[in-house]
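Sample entry (265 residues):
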Amino acid sequence: GAMATMRARTEAFGASVARKPCFLRVPRGAATNCGRSSARRFLQPAERISATRIGRRDPRAGASAEVTSTANSLVRKFLDNQDEGLVKGYKIASSYWEGMKRQKSASYKTVLTQVAGESAPGRSGSGVDYDVVVCGGNLGIAIALALQNRGHRVLIVERRLLRGRTQEWNASRKECMNLVKAGLLSLSDLEDVIISEFNPNRVTFKGGEDVWVEDILNVGVAPDELVSRLKERFLAAGGHVRELCEFRSATVYEDMAVVEVRDVG
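Predicted structure, serialized as tokens:
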């Protein structure tokens, strides 16, 4: 496929050498966000949040305040030894939780703008770089591969590396078979990525009787192996992946969408 036309030059496609924003052109309505938005604002770092909490506590709180301080110290110590993705995920969750406690929504940045009645500036007659841009590859790899197999030019933008986690996903075998029916995996591939299976499952509510169900969330799938196989097929089909590259914004014109991304590696 053709390389993207970008306002920030890179030495090679997908290389993380340009830290300035760059722009990709896709048909109107073809930018899809299948992962967490990287444009959300975070609250202060965890250690500063903890300090604020402790500073506002009632002096009479005594032992309760000491427990809070100890807990915050343990959280900071734990986060210091984790990767960047986990820490950012924690900050996102913490931001929403703090907003809920204050009874207002966590702040966020507008990342999608629609411009009615205008064509994208500077692109007259030059066409688009991609038909579809999928923002967030670990959850978006399946739809990206399906679209690429149908003849569309697809780009995946992934802020981190496009690889699944090692903790297994629970699913139903019937759900997994949809990947085979769609031509995304072979039956052999599917059997390889399913690493556990169990039947029946028990459903219990407090005060009620046990209910045993069959074939519901009864298989464990290895996300790292699943994403790896889907990614391999996606690249072989001519798809493109930009890892360590974050989505910044999208502007939708009458003739195309302009997606702004930034290399972060």
